[in-house]
Write a structure and sequence with these properties.
HSP40/DNAj peptide-binding domain; four-stranded mixed β-sheet; three-stranded mixed β-sheet; 4 helices
Length: 128
């Protein structure tokens, strides 16, 4: 007599039904929809990187910088893939820095495609 989990069955009818259910799910769902790697690659490609340079004095006390940049919005219109550039500015509050650089990440400020937005990665570097 062996251990059997609750609900487990050696009944071949249950196993055939389970396999049929899994196969039906896989037929309905494109692999892109369930691939984590695909999701990561798609979202990483939407990220924007922007460098900001500060003086040593600004790094010691912290400061605010206004950056001006643009992002790409990908969309579909009349069955055709299109894109447009949208300019925007953002005020960055830079804290007092204890090192020569800092990376700040802002959600949903990157490029946009199919309802997904990348991030804006601001790299603050101290000019010496």
């Amino acid at each position: 007599m062996g251990y059997q989990k609750k609900g487990d069955s050696d009944d071949p009818v249950d196993k055939k039904q389970e396999r049929a259910d899994v196969e039906a799910f896989l037929k309905e769902t494109p692999l892109d929809d369930i691939s984590f790697d695909q999701w990561c690659n798609h979202n990483n490609s939407l990220d924007l990187k922007y460098p900001v340079f500060v003086t040593e004095d600004q790094a010691k006390t912290g400061c605010e910088k206004t950056i001006k940049l643009s992002r790409t919005i990908f969309y579909e219109e009349d069955g055709k893939n299109k894109k447009k550039r949208v300019k925007f500015s953002k005020v960055i509050s830079i804290p007092r820095l204890d090192s020569d650089s800092l990376e700040m990440v802002f959600d949903r400020d990157g490029d946009e495609k199919e309802g997904c937005c990348g991030v804006l990665i601001v790299t603050v570097k101290v000019i010496k």
